[in-house]
Amino acid sequence: MAAESAVPSLHRQGASVVWRIVKPLIAIAAFLALWELAPRFGLVDEVFLPPFSVVAEAFVELVVNGQLWEHLSASLSRALTGFAIAILVAVPLGVAIAWYKPVAEFLGPILELFRNTAALALLPVFILILGIGETSKISLVLYASTFPILLNTISGVRTVDPLLIKSARSLGFSPLRLFQKVVLPAAVPTIFTGVRMAAASSILVLIAAEMVGAKAGLGYLITASQLNFQIPNMYAGILAISLVGLTFNGLIVAVERRISRWRPTH
């Protein structure tokens, strides 16, 4: 009897696992089906919005001839460099601002000024000062990525449960040990929220910068394809950006889970 009752239970568990995998894909499949069918049935102009299958063919062709990798590697190099520097700068700075009041009072006004200045508004300034080469693009990514990480780091450190801090101090924790064992682990989820926001911002501003002054990169690929009326290639570049964004987000979530293994999962 026990063995017989276990079989339906295993079937239910298997079906539940399959459904959890399939469910997020339903909306994507519906979107791609709409993309494929709308141009073919004349709901939109096929010249300006080719069917998904045509875009997929262009995507594969760009992969095979090496063009996509050339542009993708250029964009990834710029984005990852600026993004990594932003993490190295923003996390320690955010910790210092949140933990030491004099630092917050000194840096607060200037940070508020730049935080409310959009990165893309400063694109002409970066180009004028740093030129149209790699330095200006990496600097723009750095600027755009810094503030989401910085603000979330400040928020994460400042909102740590005071009872945790009091308990650790009552146990004789030194300030450094208190910070390592209590404050930083508690702030990790909020910090990673900022990191995920910064990853999206880095791709956004980089693509805009590559559309203005670049000879390689996904932004350049999209603009050049539009100007040459290679519309499937343009959409293939947009699709590549979406895949890069999804990959970035997935990697960051995986790292966060790895670091936060001590936290209960829901």
Automatic annotation (TrEMBL):
Statement: the UniProt record of this protein carries the keyword Lipid biosynthesis: no
Superkingdom of this protein's organism: Bacteria
A Pfam family annotated for this UniProt entry: BPD_transp_1
GO cellular component, one term: plasma membrane
Cell compartment(s), UniProt: Cell membrane
GO biological process, one term: transmembrane transport
SUPFAM superfamilies, alphabetized: MetI-like (SSF161098)
Segments crossing the lipid bilayer: 17-35, 47-68, 80-101, 113-133, 140-158, 178-195, 202-222, 234-255
Keywords linked to the UniProt accession: Cell membrane, Membrane, Transmembrane, Transmembrane helix, Transport
Family: Belongs to the binding-protein-dependent transport system permease family.
Name used for this protein in its record: ABC transporter permease
Species annotation: Rhodococcoides kyotonense
